[in-house]
Amino acid sequence: MLKAKKRLGLVFFPAFDWQISPTHPEREERLLYTMDQLKEEGIFDIDGIELFNPVIATEKDINRVHFCYPDVNTKVPKSHLISAGGAIRAAEAVLNNETEKSFAIVRPPGHHAHRIVYGDRGFCIINIEAVMVEYIRKKYGNKKIAIIDTDCHHGDGTQDIYWNDKDTLFISLHQDGRTLFPGSGFQDELGGPGAFGYNLNIPLPPNTGEEGFLYVLDNLILPILEEYKPDIIINSAGQDNHYTDPITNMNFTAQGYGKLNEKLNPDIAVLEGGYSIEGALPYINLGIILAMAGLDYSKVKEPDYTPEKVSQSEEITKYIKRLCSDIYSNWKNREALAEKLFKDKEYVIRNKRIYYDTDGIMENQEEKIKVCSSCSGLIIIKSKSDRGDKLLAIIIPRDGCDSCINKGYELYKTTQKGKFSKIYLQDKVNDEFFSKI
Amino acid sequence: MIIGLDTGGTHVDAVIVEDGKIIDTAKKNTNKDNLFISIWETLEELLKNKNLNSIKKVNLSTTISTNAVIEGKNNPVAMFIESGPGIDPSNFTCGDYTVFLNGYIDHRGREIKPFSSELVHKEAKKIISKGVKAASVVTKFSTRNLSHELAIKNILKDYGFSPITMGHKLSGNLSFPRRIYTAYLNSTVYNSFNNFSIAIKNAFINKGINIPIHILKADGGTLELENASIYPVQTILSGPAASVMGCLAFFNLNSDAILLDIGGTTTDISFLADGVPLLVPNGITISNYPTLIRSIYNVSIGLGGDSAIKVNEKGEIVIGPKRQGPPMALDGLTPTPSDAMIVLGKLNFGNRKKALEAMKIIGDKLNINPEEMAKKIYDKFGEIIKHKVFSLLKEINSKPVYTIHELLYSKKIKPKKIIAIGGPAKAVSHILEEKFRIPCKVPKNYDIANAVGAALAKRTFEINLMADTECKKLSVPEMGIYKNIDNSYSLDKAKKDAIELLIEGTKDFYVDYNPDDIEITEESSFNMVRGFFTSGKNIRVKAQIKPGLIQRIGGINNA
Ligand SMILES: [Zn+2]
Ligand SMILES: [Zn+2]
Q1: Residues of B contacting chain A (CB within 8 angstroms)
Q2: Which of A83, A332, B264, B450 has its CA 20 to 30 A from that of B323?
Q3: Number of domains present in the structure of chain B
């Protein structure tokens, strides 16, 4: 019998009775062949690999991260609460020392879900990693956490949530936003005044192969992690970088995903996207599991794999090298850059348009962050949807100073009800959530 | 009349049952070196002065295959393994010769790459020349497409290999490593079992009895001798199943229950869910080989009437897990729970003075008088069982689920009753009732429970049907079916076919046919979408003739 070198907990929840629509990529069939492959390989018999069932995330867990309109109960289906609960269970298994590492193979995904939630975008409604991360912080203390998003799409939701939080280093590597949904994730999106440089985007050109991904890992991500010294590393493990994925244009492989996870050595991995359900997912998930458990994955290869299929051009190699060095210098100079940008400012204001592709809603946002010398700063978001809804969301950050706390409560109290469809206050210092209509 | 026989480590027990009544019993010592003799002598004694014509069937729970595995009295086996990409198959090497083939069948049963028949020929020639005749052929996903296993078998046959076990015939469940081990075990115990099966068949014929002979399986069902001879691995570890079926025979149970077989050195724990024995999720493990053999869930702990009692450095009482001779009341040297129960008047054998002495030895270490000590040990005995049962239940009740419906609504086992058998069962029933706060029943004739369980067990069978209407293939590995279907094939048709196949697969032997015993245990149908269009259906049906009893034992034991 095989024995895992590192104990690994798996939350494997394929949600065989849930789909967005019968022909949608996020359909019942998505993890069917992965389950077959894992069962046939005998993964669940490996000594040291243990299965956990998801818990169901609560309204309170969601409200720590999101502002759901009109509210959690109306907006978030059971399926998404269970998916987030799967991530929570995976985290608990590690933090309770039931296992060393864990991998939540759950669906639906979450990394396109922003702080404000009007509906479904990019198959996501709530951000399952963020819900998990905030649950960890609530239950196990304020950990320094690095989220490495290896999904092919920019993790724009996770970026939005952690934009001004330097206890969360967010690194997203993805296909260049000029060529793929959601169209964001450029290297100059570096974070708010309280966390500038702690949001790093690595937009890779289409057709990036195994070589390119591993170059980014070795030469950019690992050195930054070395310096950041997180308590917990999370791999937001989308699998749509695969060369057979139907909705993207990259050339990553099961072997590559295995190597990436071996080197990155995440404490927790959470499945995000990945829609090549037959040709990629069974092999990638197998590769990730074996790599995380410290087992040999060298024979895990797609049936149609050839090295030529996944090789990248010289041009791409050069481009990626330059990109990495630019991003690394942003990281290195983050304080000086922040100083230049935010010095003597009282507030930093951003305007954003957020499109909910699955539900067809357009949102306009004004995000106002206080530049505060005592904390990362109060955040005030004014949002308007094309359905006519207007929201005000006030966020007191976890490190909120007395002045920011008071300002937050004051604003919540004094804002008149009639001006907005709903007014929210998220007090992360005291783990409180208020709303009024 | 039906005969049931159980082979235990020390005794062979046999019973004749008719219309819910135990007509007669027989008991002999087990001769480990010749199980056939022990079994046959017990049967001969039982059959003395009986009307042989009225015997309809004999069910034997034997340890032939089990002992062959455990004692390693086995045939050498050549393993032909085809894995394709995945975990390195050399991790699952077993047998005496292993040939790794380079073909590949994927998760949907599509042939990605043919195997090299040249390599099979070359290795077959080499291995057979070394005098190895038994072989097993296992390919990854052979349950979805058996063609490679079949083709390799056909090559091996021509070289004179026999037996040749094909993985897909042993179980339709997924697990390549377990399939390898199960196929290996089947070939390796083949001769041992066949020596026995030929001997027992002839013995019955010589006595002029021509009746179906069935062998008990670990899932609490039986298998006719003819099939057991081809698949002897199906007969491993049937002892605990006999005991569970025996408990069922004495009581009319429809609720969740805990079954305990409390012996001298061990306590076996099993469960009923709505009156039906709980099975292990994948298959039973024997001698460190995880298999695909269906089995009743049974966990053995090192706690029994004769377990040695010690006091550890922390001043805590430790019972078991080892036995160090008989209780002191029977002139043993180590205090045991039986001594405590003798002191408390709950057991009535041996020398009570010596039992008191035993309690004094332990009590002195803890400054407790012997009677109090006996009470504490008795309490601890119950506590250990309770603790173990609760932790097992927690594990069972958190078994993996794959749908939102199951996660929200799947059944949790909540025992309403305890059934205990074995020497100390009656004596410990009070403390069990106190600890679990549910009634504990002990059947009167528990010493023959295993033989009764064997007698009343039914033929069982499980099949896994998978239909892929995009590939236009249907596969039922247990029955060797792999055929074409058209794209109108539906879940309803699959369920109908599964039931018909179950009946067909067992009709020659299935003397106790009852349509209620047939059930679909799992069913699913997935729309397969390629591009933006539905390209087919992926249909899966699991059906079984469920384990159960043909009748119960009536009378005073009925509860
Ligand atoms: Zn994606
Ligand atoms: Zn502040």
Answers
A1: 84-88, 91, 104, 106-108, 112-113, 140-141, 173-178, 282, 288, 290, 398, 400-405, 407-408, 524, 526-529, 531-534, 538
A2: B450
A3: 3
